[in-house]
Amino acid sequence: MDKVRLGVIGCGNMSKVHMATALGASEDTSEELRPYASAVQLHGLADVTEEKAEAARAEFGGEYVTDDPERIFTDPDIDAVLITTWHDTHAPFSLRAMEAGKHVLIEKPMAMTEAECDQILEAEERTGVKYMVAFRCRFAMGTRDVKREIPSPDNVITFARVPGIWGPQIWAQDPIKGGGQILSQGCHVVDLMMYLAGSEPESVYATGGVKHHESPEVIDTVNASVRFANGAVGSFMGGDGGAGRLLLPGAYVSCPFFVMAVDKGRSGIAIDHGQNARFESAVPADVWTPPYEIADYAEEFGNNKSSGMGDILPSFGRSIIEDETPIATAVDGARATRFILKCFESVRTGEIVKF
Ligand SMILES: NC(=O)c1ccc[n+]([C@@H]2O[C@H](COP(=O)([O-])OP(=O)(O)OC[C@H]3O[C@@H](n4cnc5c(N)ncnc54)[C@H](O)[C@@H]3O)[C@@H](O)[C@H]2O)c1
């Protein structure tokens, strides 16, 4: 296969970030991925609000628009689908696409329940299609440095609190459509924590609860302690309701999340979804010399390029064309969703929860 004809389901804000890279149209796509970006062609665009699909087609191209995702799934001219809808449709649309033989790029979170995770893992294995979760932090410039310098940390410290309170008008805060801020945004940083840890989580203990929302259904605060299979430990502090900017006053974006990886005197921190990074050494220079103290890639290259967002769809295209394993698979999507759900379970029961 030398081209990927793409169907898009959900033509809202995030889909545009990805569609802007099709046909190699974005300056923010890395040089090495440009050929694959050029090979991705927009074909059918679907949205329940057809005008949104039409507006996206006017901006980015495509052969047709529809308000019926089924037209995308049954179109023999479509090789792959990008799913950028609200969260309750992620699993059903993923399963439908895989059954129809389409490769899938899904926005996060991959799924909202453990049962959905199991179904997607089973379908990914059985159908053999490429299934990729758009975990953006893996593509960011600072993340790459921390992963390279500290490949096997003994401690990963994760902070994912946003500055404001997500109001009930935000769809992702709805218990059915979204699952709340921690499942929605937190899963990016949970995936970054897992990616940098490089080991499977074994157990988690979390405190927290509903601290500043009316609805009792969506936990908005989690302070978790996690143990990994390789003996490493970690922590995850997630939620909305403030403190987001206090630790990182100069942060470039509105969600100044970070993951700090520590390994026997070597420390690295991936900041702002991994766009920027900092290092500190407590070991002699002949043992380890950090590549730098502070890299402000967002300042140097701009927000879009340093975030790696321009590489996500092209990287998915490469995995199809070169028959490679995608950067983040259903295993990674399931791990992030399960971790958050197990944090919620621990908050509710007061027990250590095993994986
Ligand atoms: N990676 C990131 O940094 C990032 C940022 C924002 C959003 N996201 C993710 O992107 C996805 C979309 O979020 P958004 O901010 O673009 O939301 P949005 O509301 O702007 O867009 C979602 C679109 O999906 C459409 N839609 C909903 N249900 C549908 C259905 N059943 N069939 C067809 N279309 C349907 C809506 O009409 C809407 O146009 C979510 O998974 C979200 O978590 C990721």
Keywords:
12 helices, Rossmann fold, six-stranded parallel beta sheet, nine-stranded mixed beta sheet, 34% helix, binds nicotinamide-adenine-dinucleotide, alpha/beta, globular, Dihydrodipicolinate Reductase, domain 2, 355 residues, 2 domains
Q: What ranges have pLDDT less than 50 throughout 5 or more consecutive residues?
A: none
By CATH's scheme, which homologous superfamily of the largest domain applies?
A: Dihydrodipicolinate Reductase, domain 2
Helical stretch tally = 12
So, CATH architecture of the largest domain? 2-Layer Sandwich
Structure characterization notes:
- The strands form 2 sheets. The chain has a 9-stranded mixed beta sheet with strand order 14-13-12-11-7-10-9-8-15, covered by helices on one side. Strands 3-2-1-4-5-6 form a 6-stranded parallel beta sheet, with helices on both faces.
- Strand 5 (about 105), helix 6 (about 115-125) and strand 6 (about 130-135) form a beta-alpha-beta unit.
- It is of the alpha/beta class and about 350 residues long.
- Helix content is about 35%, strand content about 25%.
- It is built from 12 helices and 15 strands.
- It is globular and about 55 Å long.
- The longest helix is centred in the C-terminal third of the chain and has 20 residues, at about 330-350.
- It folds into 2 domains: about 5-135 and about 310-325, Rossmann fold (3-Layer(aba) Sandwich), CATH 3.40.50; about 135-300 and about 335-355, Dihydrodipicolinate Reductase, domain 2 (2-Layer Sandwich), CATH 3.30.360.10.
- It binds nicotinamide-adenine-dinucleotide.
- Nicotinamide-adenine-dinucleotide binds near residues 12, 47 and 87.
- Nicotinamide-adenine-dinucleotide binds near residues 47, 108 and 136.
